């Protein structure tokens, strides 16, 4: 079982005015729930755990855009540091995909992979999928079943966040940064209708902001 840093339901977070938050978002956020520095510290440790398990063979790191891009970039920086400062190292290549989910029928959640190289490039490789947040887990489970068709040597999933929610299918990633309450979170590339990716800390979106940025 993956270990993670638990942010409990009664965690109050931190007052916005104690941190640097873009002026244009000051009215839209309730509290800072995970400051940027804590994200970085936890990510550094995940990099070490990943290299321990996957560092024996060529790793293909697969970024799930757009929400995963910050975590992906920072995680890979830490993995690169480990690679360049140890006597043992493995090649690390990258790829970027987007997932389009069709959930007209709730029971059969289909996911379409957009962009990226041919999935056959993953055959025989150690594949690390990097995602921002797992909620029900259905997106990731569908992607995993697609990827296993290309016969990778190993597939692991790293998700910065996992939401504690009754909607969960029970799926858990192999590497988890934080387990978070069932609230809508933004920042560090997580968005609400494309806004808030340009915010360093992970924050709780206010109810009035949900209305303001509704499409
Ligand atoms: P699921 O695990 O298939 O339910 O889907 C997870 C996806 O929903 C993530 O990749 C996000 O794009 C999105 N998502 C879920 N919860 C949040 C949130 O709190 N903030 C931003 N995006 C979220
Ligand atoms: Mg995502």
UniProtKB/TrEMBL annotation:
Its cofactor is Mg(2+). It is found in: Cytoplasm. Its EC number is 2.4.2.8. Gene3D superfamilies: 3.40.50.2020. The keyword Calcium does not apply. Pathway: Purine metabolism; IMP biosynthesis via salvage pathway; IMP from hypoxanthine: step 1/1. One of its GO terms (molecular function) is nucleotide binding. InterPro entries: HGPRT, Hxn_phspho_trans, PRTase-like, PRTase_dom. It comes from the Eukaryota. Residues 38-192 form the Phosphoribosyltransferase domain. One of its GO terms (biological process) is GMP salvage. The keyword Phosphoprotein does not apply. Keywords: Cytoplasm, Glycosyltransferase, Magnesium, Metal-binding, Nucleotide-binding, Purine salvage, Transferase. It catalyses: GMP + diphosphate = guanine + 5-phospho-alpha-D-ribose 1-diphosphate; IMP + diphosphate = hypoxanthine + 5-phospho-alpha-D-ribose 1-diphosphate. One of its GO terms (cellular component) is cytosol. NCBIfam families: HGPRTase (TIGR01203). Belongs to the purine/pyrimidine phosphoribosyltransferase family. Homotetramer. Converts guanine to guanosine monophosphate, and hypoxanthine to inosine monophosphate. Transfers the 5-phosphoribosyl group from 5-phosphoribosylpyrophosphate onto the purine. Plays a central role in the generation of purine nucleotides through the purine salvage pathway. This is Hypoxanthine phosphoribosyltransferase. It comes from Chanos chanos.
